[in-house]
Write a structure and sequence with these properties.
Strand content: 15-25%
CATH class: Alpha Beta
Number of helices: 10
Distance between the termini: 25 Å
Subunit structure: Monomer and homodimer.
Order of helices and strands: EEEEHEHEHEHHEHEHEEEEEEHHH
Keywords: 4Fe-4S, GTP-binding, Iron, Iron-sulfur, Lyase, Metal-binding, Molybdenum cofactor biosynthesis, Nucleotide-binding, S-adenosyl-L-methionine
CATH architecture: Alpha-Beta Barrel
Binding site for [4Fe-4S] cluster 1: 45, 49, 52
Domain Radical SAM core: 29-254
Bound molecules: guanosine-5'-triphosphate, S-adenosylmethionine, iron/sulfur cluster
Strand order of the largest sheet: 1-15-14-13-4-5-6-7-8-9-12-11-10
Binding site for S-adenosyl-L-methionine: 51, 93, 144, 214
Length: 351
């Protein structure tokens, strides 16, 4: 199998840093600074959401290519201590698929105390691990949940696991992993159930955000004309709820918020396509194989695993990372003529 068939994009090392100011933190040519690190720790997943994974799952990453727990902790330490990262999020694939997740979290909590450690998860099995993860030092979780209708859930995720997800969300709240935020990708088939999902989240005391689907599905079926835009969702929610526009918590937050029925509850919309927030992007990503990926949509990645295993020091790794960020793309370019989706799908990048 070729690397392209496995969904592994071009890996370049090193990137040119010509013109880069001599500063420690992660700056790019467009004046943006990355403070938010997202670490994918696996390509494996317990679900097969149609907008993300192929039915058969992603090709397995050979064990020797996957970062170990200690390697992940080391790179997180480099990001925080040398590059100015202020928040770390574990994602995937499904982070709960890694048995050593608690060890990764505990290692980071010990080495970068005070830095918020979050996780984005589908919550399958979280019921049994939420307390342990909180004890290990996890700060909060965001959970993917697109519908509270069991048949719809099974169809969209290709797995009948809704009860486990709902139990996982409740366990996260009980363990104090808050604020618990819920991510729902907007799909034509679940749009009608959006008010029920919002009502469920209001009742459970969790913060719902709807997300516009991006062209990051492994099956390459995304089409602009089929995407449910934020405006259409607002019209549907507006039939049942009174919504008052609030805006963003901070300029680089993907979610715009609306107050529901006068507050204090809110609903968010992450309109990555129709109201792109690339100009204020503050993200940098590590893939599960240890490459730096500066933009979701850019297939050009910088390898850190190879140099790390060949004995590179922390400052050498930081230098490679700074070069990757300096070459970050201006934005996703979905609306541009000739746009082509990246080789990696969302689950293979770490959403
Ligand atoms: N375009 C774009 N969308 C992103 C990016 N990161 C996350 N998203 C989208 O935003 C959704 C929610 O992401 P989360 O992992 O919950 O993170 P977040 O919204 O940044 O987290 P909070 O700090 O809790 O608000 C993802 O499912 C993606 O669809 C990004 O860098 N670019
Ligand atoms: C790839 S998942 C990984 C973490 C975990 N498995 C989960 O589902 O939360 C991260 C986020 O990406 C989102 N996502 C996946 N495919 C997407 C797409 N095509 N467009 C927008 N968001 C997507 C999911 O809804 C989820 O919130
Ligand atoms: S969105 Fe998350 S849960 Fe769904 S298939 Fe992708 S990685 Fe798995
Ligand atoms: S698409 Fe790229 S530039 Fe835009 S917000 Fe996402 S990671 Fe940042």
């Amino acid at each position: 199998m070729t690397t392209v068939e496995m969904g592994i994009p071009t890996v370049r090392t090193p990137a040119s840093s010509a013109g880069r100011p001599d500063v420690a933190h992660l700056v790019d040519r467009f004046g943006r600074v990355a403070r938010d690190l997202r670490v994918s720790i696996t390509e494996k997943c317990s679900l097969r959401c149609t907008y993300c994974m192929p039915e058969e799952g992603l090709p397995a990453i050979p064990a020797e290519r996957l970062l170990t727990a200690d390697e992940i902790v080391r790179l997180v330490v480099v990001a925080v201590r040398r590059l100015g990262v202020r928040e770390v999020r574990f994602t995937g694939g499904e982070p709960l698929m890694r048995a050593d997740l608690e060890r990764i979290v505990a290692g980071c909590a010990a080495r970068v105390p005070g830095v918020p450690l979050a996780m984005t998860t589908n919550a399958v099995g979280l019921e049994h691990r939420a307390r342990g993860l909180a004890a290990a030092g996890l700060t909060r979780v965001n959970v993917s949940l697109d519908t509270v209708e069991r048949g719809q859930f099974a169809k969209l995720t290709r797995r009948d696991r809704l009860p486990s997800v709902l139990a996982g969300i409740r366990a996260a709240v009980a363990a104090g992993l808050s604020p618990v935020k819920i991510n729902a990708v907007l799909m034509p088939e679940t749009l009608g159930g959006a008010p029920d999902l919002l009502q469920w989240c209001l009742d459970e005391g969790v913060q719902l955000r709807f997300i516009e689907e991006m062209p990051l599905d492994a099956d390459h079926e995304w089409a602009r004309e089929n995407m449910v835009p934020a405006d259409r969702l607002l019209a549907v929610l507006g039939e049942r709820f009174d919504l008052g526009e609030i805006g963003r918590d901070d300029p680089s937050a993907p979610a715009e918020k609306w107050r529901v029925n006068g507050g204090p509850s809110t609903v968010g919309i992450i309109a990555s396509v129709s109201r792109s927030f690339c100009a204020d992007c503050d993200r940098t990503r590590l893939t599960a194989e240890g490459t730096v990926r500066s933009c979701l949509f850019s297939d050009s990645e910088i390898d850190l695993r190879g140099p790390m295993r060949s004995g590179a020091g922390d400052e050498e790794l930081a230098l490679l990372w700074r070069g990757a960020m300096w070459n970050k793309w201006v934005g996703h370019g979905i609306e541009a003529d000739g746009f082509a989706p990246p080789v990696r799908s969302m689950g293979a990048i770490g959403g």
